[in-house]
Amino acid sequence: MFSHVTIGSRNPNEASKFYDEVLSTLGIDTLFNVDGAVAYGEPTGPKTFILKPFNGESPIPGNGGHIAYLADSRDQVDAFYAAALKLGGTDEGAPGLRPQYHQNYYGAYVRDPEGNKLQAVCHSKNG
Fold first, then answer.
1. pLDDT digit string (tens) for 49-70?
2. What is the pLDDT of residue 19?
3. What number of helices (H) and strands (E) belong to the chain?
4. What Å distances lie between residue 101 and 27, 63, 106, 114, CA to CA?
5. What residue spans of the chain are helical by DSSP H?
6. Is 2 exposed, middle or buried (0-12, 13-18, 19+ CB in 10 A)?
7. Domains by residue range for the chain, with CATH
């Protein structure tokens, strides 16, 4: 459904210390990490970029928006959440079922150290 998402950061290479470990819990690998830019995902598939804003202004997390990453299992959701908190992220909703979305919706919400809201979600009953 989408090609990529971009997360603004004051220092993308420093932010990679958080994202490397947190996204690896979901099986998402670093695509590249060069001076001022980091990417995760597949060359021809969905990607997440961590970049300084092109306009040179401070990055500001969106109000009401977040990025939700698919997890293959509920254990991955739990690992995502634990890694994020260990690395300086903050809780925005502990892992658990959210039946208001659908009966098997299992997710967790965090904010990265710069305030960007992230989620991991598993849609599988047996995940």
1. 999 999 999 999 988 999 999 9
2. 98
3. 2, 8
4. 24, 21, 9, 28
5. 12-24, 74-86
6. exposed
7. 4-53+66-122 (3.10.180.10)
